[in-house]
TrEMBL record:
Residues 284-467 form the VWFA domain. This is Inter-alpha-trypsin inhibitor heavy chain H3. It comes from Heterocephalus glaber (Naked mole rat). GO terms for biological process: hyaluronan metabolic process. One of its GO terms (molecular function) is serine-type endopeptidase inhibitor activity. GO terms for cellular component: extracellular region. Pfam families: ITI_HC_C (PF06668), VIT (PF08487), VWA (PF00092). Keywords: Glycoprotein, Protease inhibitor, Proteoglycan, Secreted, Serine protease inhibitor, Signal. InterPro entries: ITI_HC_C, ITIH, VIT, VWF_A, vWFA_dom_sf.
Length: 887
């Protein structure tokens, strides 16, 4: 396949965020404050930036979206981006409240296990699916706590391919709400110099965009910026919804005074070749058209319309014929005829009378076409310097005559013998597209989908335009022997007007001075040889002076092209060869961090390589074998950061999160300093946690109420004969009778037999008893001398159903109902009736803070406050939980 004429040089991106419909918080009824603009369902997207750097056609795109959950409760925030099917994702990171979850590329099989595990544990799964004709939609959702901020950053790279004389980038945008800082910023650097640059938006005329859109180019640099103010984003002057919804398209081309250009950086080179001003090589075209029963109706009508349009474009030096196939194969003429006005008139009449009928015999139709072209060349019916093409259109699978795909492929391959290209057009979705693709690829052509839609005739006609003007045939790009290695494809059957040939490779000797490239091809009138010589040091120096380009882009471009070609070759490979190609493509994907059909992106929690939280991957071709719209392209699973949790912190405030309700319950226990309370007691696992209360020692002369906190915690694992005492000054571990003392001033991790204790200096410590039990102790450095402790249960799923204690009793699922929300004694805090554990209680809306991530500020958690030491909510009364000692 000539990479030079892949038509999809689209780079599209669509960015939006949306909040899901979580149950509405009761507080919402009270209309706490008027909503600021740009807030949809409590989510404010305050910034979206699409940053593209294109250097020598290689595009590096970063989309960054920042949002904050201004709602009173956790919300699921969705991030969506549309990117071209030909692009490779290279990075994705999530940052939640300052904690970054980075993406790593892994082999698909490895990542798949982790993905399946995540899904089996009920973690949210996101997807990337095909979207429209050229795009894939990447979607991920995260659950974001009230007041929290989240940043999504997606990076992808793509080589823009020249198509009908232009490089084109689509940025599909759809922010779904007004965004305070919305910006598209595109910098293009082209060493050959930019000859044209344009940008336009499908959703509004450029005059109305006014100052929001700027575009400029000069010499080698081009810049496009689109930065609409809030007012410019409004769909009308008083509207609060956004008119940004559609394609933002940037097109450009480079100077073509020279037929080609070579660029070299750090031992890698790329060679672009696109000569201008050559006469078109006459072509001999056989259209092989499926007229089987399934084509009936609109499809056959659109095919007729397209062929009539194509006949208008056929040049008088071209030769043509039509072969129609159903169960039988019929031809318009016995042999190819020249496109004289009389013949074209006759062809129109023939096309208008095409009717559908019967079954599908692809094999015989193609063999007839190949035979006809071979014979025309041999018998000199067609001009000596002409070139041949078969364009086959089908909407279904072979079902009569030879119908085994492998056999058809073999027959066609043996008949064509590499002499001319076969283009297969798959109409609609009801066929084995991968078969069409494999067959076209092994005969130097390519397959294209024609989407069953009102513009199908235009798609067919558009495809014909791409192949209508061959300027060169049998193109060979050659470099001096032994000077180059790891070369990408360097021979092409055709060079078509408006496209470009791109070859990349490595210099064997990085210090070579002169680089020479020869391009040979057959033109309409003569054979041509283009020679290009460049001074390696000079071209390298010129490129390196461009400080804003990323230094190794030519190496990445080479890797991108190599992977793309290996994956394509792999489609027709078998056995060991296929394994070999797979291994090479996988190797490069991992090395250069590309999400390809062989790799997945795994988003991991920081400092925790075991706990994978999100996965993105691109599917293999199998997934798209039989559907018009290739199915799943990436898969993402994400573990919400907010598992059910239970904690006690502050005064002491107990917080019980109830995930089924997306809400929380809280209560205080007022006891005298010195008392010890049972927090967790599990007779089955032998785990217990007790906490000792201390008083606030600050001067409190104006009040005789003493605040109380936890100052000491005792954690016991009886089965392991293990104890930990945590005070605000030190941490003591007992393994049997042997104590180890650690300080809050250390950053240290202790592991043994499934137990792990990590101290994060002056902040918190994390204690895990194997998988399924994890506690976090937070150190609050509030007072000068005496600090206090918070205790969080972040994972309790391995604890038994018999667990008890002030926190432990809530580890089992339980339900509550809140009704009759009414004003309470504090106007900002409504009261309500709660029914829980067969008690009816009056509760008050309040909030507490979660200090797990941010020990100084905390994150606000709204909850229903149960009065009188949790009376009615906790089993028994609070004094039942007083124990005699920490252990
Ligand atoms: C991925 O993006 C993050 C955030 O910008 C960055 O820190 C990291 O280095 C990137 N990873 C790669 C491999 O480029
Ligand atoms: C596999 O690749 C190696 C080079 O990496 C090559 O030497 C070998 O011949 C290849 N084998 C096959 C079956 O293609
Ligand atoms: C101190 O506490 C007691 C008992 O709780 C209460 O009766 C008294 O009024 C309080 N004194 C002041 C000054 O608040």
């Amino acid at each position: 396949m000539a990479s030079a004429w892949w038509p999809c040089l689209a780079l599209a991106l669509f960015s939006s965020l949306a909040a899901s419909g979580f149950p509405r918080s009761p507080l919402r009824l009270l209309g706490k404050r008027s909503l600021p603009e740009g807030l949809v369902d409590g989510i404010e997207i305050y910034s979206t930036k699409i940053n593209c750097k294109v250097t020598s056609r290689f595009a590096h795109n970063v989309i960054t979206t920042r949002a904050v959950n201004r709602a009173d409760k956790a919300k699921e925030i969705f991030f969506e981006a549309e990117l071209p099917k030909t692009g490779f994702i290279t990075n994705f990171t999530l940052t939640i409240d300052g904690v970054t979850y980075p993406g790593n590329i892994k082999e698909k099989e490895v990542a798949k296990k982790q993905y399946e595990k995540a899904v089996s544990q009920g973690k949210t799964a996101g997807l990337v699916k095909a979207s429209g004709r050229k795009l894939e939609k990447f979607t991920v959702s995260v659950n974001v706590a009230a007041g929290s901020k989240v940043t999504f950053e997606l990076t992808y790279e793509e080589l823009l391919k020249r198509h009908k004389g232009k490089y084109e980038m689509y940025l599909k945008i759809h922010p779904k709400q007004l965004v305070k800082h919305f910006e598209i910023d595109v910098h293009i650097f082209e060493p050959q110099g930019i000859s044209t640059l344009d940008a336009e938006a499908s959703f509004i005329t450029n005059d109305l965009l006014g100052s929001a859109l700027t575009k400029s180019f000069s010499g080698q640099k081009g810049h496009v910026s689109f930065k609409p103010s809030l007012d410019q984003q409004r769909s009308c002057p008083t509207c609060t919804d956004s008119l940004l919804n559609g394609d933002f398209t940037i097109t450009y081309d480079v100077n073509r005074e020279s037929p080609g250009d070579v660029q070299i950086v750090n031992g890698y080179f790329v060679h672009f070749f696109a000569p201008q001003g050559l006469p078109v090589v006459p072509k001999n075209v056989v259209f092989v058209i499926d007229v089987s029963g399934s084509m009936s109706g609109r499809k056959i009508q659109q095919t007729r319309d397209a062929l009539l349009k194509i006949l208008e474009d056929v040049k008088k030096d071209d030769y043509l014929n039509f072969i129609l196939f159903s169960g039988d194969v019929t031809t318009w003429k016995d042999q190819l005829v020249q496109a004289t006005p009389e013949n074209l008139q006759e062809a129109r009449t023939f096309v208008k009378n095409i009717r559908d009928q019967g079954a599908t015999n692809i094999n015989d139709a193609l063999l007839r076409a190949i035979h006809m072209l071979n014979k025309a060349q041999e018998e000199h019916v067609v001009p000596e310097r002409s070139t041949s093409i078969i364009i086959m259109l089908t909407d279904g699978d072979a079902n009569t005559g030879e119908s085994r795909p492998e056999k058809i492929q073999e027959n066609v391959r043996n008949a064509i013998e590499g002499k001319f290209p076969l283009y297969n057009l798959g109409f609609g979705r009801n066929m084995d597209y991968s078969f069409l693709e494999r067959m076209a690829l092994e005969n130097h052509g390519l397959a294209r989908r024609i989407y069953e839609d009102s513009d199908a005739d235009l798609q067919l006609q558009g495809f014909y335009e791409e192949v209508a003007n061959p300027l060169l045939t049998s193109v060979q790009v050659e470099y001096p022997d032994n000077a180059i290695q790891d070369l990408t494809q360097n021979n092409y059957q055709h060079f078509y007007d408006g496209s470009e040939i791109v070859v990349a490779g490595r210099l064997v000797d990085e210090d070579m001075n002169n680089f020479k490239a020869d391009v040979k091809g057959h033109g309409a009138l003569s054979d041509l040889l283009y020679t290009k010589e460049v001074d390696v040091k000079e071209t390298e120096k010129a490129l390196k002076e461009q400080d804003y380009i990323f230094g190794n882009f030519i190496e990445r471009l080479w890797a991108y092209l190599t992977i793309e070609q290996l994956l394509e070759k792999r489609k027709n490979a078998q056995g060991e060869e296929k394994e070999n190609l797979t291994a090479q493509a996988l190797d490069l994907s991992l090395k250069y961090h590309f999400v390809t059909p062989l790799t997945s992106m795994v988003v991991t929690k920081p400092e925790d390589n075991e706990d994978q939280t999100a996965i993105a991957d691109k599917p293999g071709e199998d997934a798209e074998a039989r559907s018009a719209i290739p199915s799943t392209a990436y898969q993402v699973s994400y573990q919400p950061p907010q598992n059910p949790y239970y904690y006690v912190d502050g005064d002491p405030h107990f917080i019980i999160q109830v995930p089924e309700k997306d809400d929380a319950i809280c209560f205080n226990i007022d006891e005298d300093p010195g008392m010890v309370l049972s927090l967790i007691q599990d007779p089955v696992t032998g785990l217990s946690v007790n906490g000792q209360i201390i008083g606030d020692t600050r001067d409190s002369s104006d009040s005789n109420t003493t605040k109380t906190y936890f100052g000491k915690l005792g954690i016991t694992n009886a089965q392991m004969d293990f104890r930990i005492e945590v005070t605000t000054e030190k941490i003591t571990l007992w393994n049997g009778a042997v104590p180890t003392t650690l300080s809050w001033l250390d950053t240290v991790m202790v592991t043994q037999d499934g137990l792990s204790v990590t101290i994060n200096r002056k902040k918190n410590m994390v204690i895990s008893f194997g998988q399924g039990v994890t506690f976090v102790v937070v150190l609050h450095p509030v007072w000068k001398k005496a600090d206090f402790l918070g205790f969080y249960v972040v994972d309790s799923h391995r604890m038994s159903a018999q667990t008890h204690g002030l926190l432990g009793q809530f580890f089992h699922p339980f339900d509550f109902e809140v009704s009759d929300i009414h004003p309470g004694s504090d106007p900002t805090k409504p009261d309500a009736i709660m029914v829980v554990k067969n008690h009816q209680l009056t509760v008050t809306r309040g909030s507490q803070k979660d200090y797990r991530k941010d020990t100084s500020m905390g994150v606000k958690v709204n909850c229903w406050f149960v009065h009188n030491n949790g009376e009615g909510l906790i089993d028994g009364v609070h004094t039942d939980y007083i124990v005699s000692s920490l252990f």
